[in-house]
Amino acid sequence: SERDNGGDQAQDVIGLSYPVPLGNPRGAAMARAEEEVRLAEAEWEVARRELRTGVARAFADALFAQEGVALARREQEISQRLHELANTRLTAGDIAEREVVRAEVDIGRASIRVLDVESVRDQAMLGLAAAIGDRKLRIGAVKGDIALPAIDLRHEDLELLILEDSPLARRWAAQRAVALGQVREAEAAKWPLLTLGAAYRRYRETDQTTWDLGVDLQLPIFDWNSGGIEAARSGLAQTERLILAEVTRTLTEMEACL
User: Fold this and answer.
1) What per-residue string of b and e applies to 215-241 under the rule 16 or more CB within 10 Å gives b?
2) How much is the CA Rg of the chain, to the nearest whole Å?
């Protein structure tokens, strides 16, 4: 209850106000949040594919290095057999001693080669463990085969696939949508807040009642969130430049692989 200034009469007042934001900032914020969810989904898909690609590449490196060790050891065995054969022929008088010395040098080279490829294999196994996500994992050997499927795609088809139907394309689209949503959210924030109010009054002494309706609209004179809008537009332009640079780099890498 309160007392009015005119008649100093006690009164009971019940009021209600309802803010109505102009420009629909809530809708703009919800739209931006939805795009952020799509961006997170696209980022997850890109990360998942990058992880699979990294593991596959590390497995291929380990398999090739392992086969390299097997090949080097076979070369070492061949060198040892040639050395034995050279000794036999030297005893028989068929060759000179320098041929035996040459065979011994070949054995030394083959042994060094084995040590080198074994080091490469060990590093490849460590790289595979790191790609899997467990650097403490000790991998002794890998089994498998690498059979690349035949892909019959034209350059234009592959480029279209990357730009329109790939996790990267979905990420680029979501990144731009989020930046554009921030611009729209900033533009929506420039509009003032409209407040609708209603109040019920009852004067105790006279038992009279009245209804008061009001509208409050605070118009900004100097600031229409111009700074926020300019920052959001600058962020959109920066995002588009980064996307363009990544698209160019991706297409350049694709062309280098063809």
Assistant:
1) eeeeeeeeeebeebbeebbebbeebee
2) 39
Cα 252–Cα 254–Cα 258 angle in degrees, nearest 5: 115
- 82: CB partners within 8 A, 6+ apart: 103, 106
Q: How far is CA 6 from CA 10, 82, 190, 212, in A?
A: 11, 123, 40, 17
Chain centroid to CA 102: how far?
56
CA 175/CA 243 separation, integer angstroms? 8
Length of the chain: 258
Q: If residue 159 lies in a helix (H) or strand (E), which one and from where to where?
A: helix 155-164
The DSSP letter of residue 206 is T
Residue 189 CA to residue 200 CA, distance in Å, equals 32
67-92 residue pLDDT tens: 999 999 999 999 999 999 999 988 88
Q: Give me the chain's average pLDDT, please.
A: 87
Look up tokens 């057999």; give the residue.
81
* Terminal-residue alpha carbon distance, the chain: 83
How buried is 131 (Cβ within 10 angstroms: 0-12 exposed, 13-18 middle, 19+ buried)? buried
Angle at 86 between CA 81 and CA 91, to 5 degrees: 130
pLDDT score, position 122: 96
- pLDDT digit string (tens) for 153-181? 677 777 888 888 888 999 999 999 999 99
Taking CA atoms, 107 is separated from 88, 180, 182, in Å, by 16, 68, 69
- What is d(CA 181, CA 41) in angstroms, rounded to the nearest whole number? 17
Neighbouring residues of 249: CB distance < 8 A, sequence distance ≥ 6: none
Please, are residues 125 and 62 in contact by the beta-carbon 8 Å criterion? yes
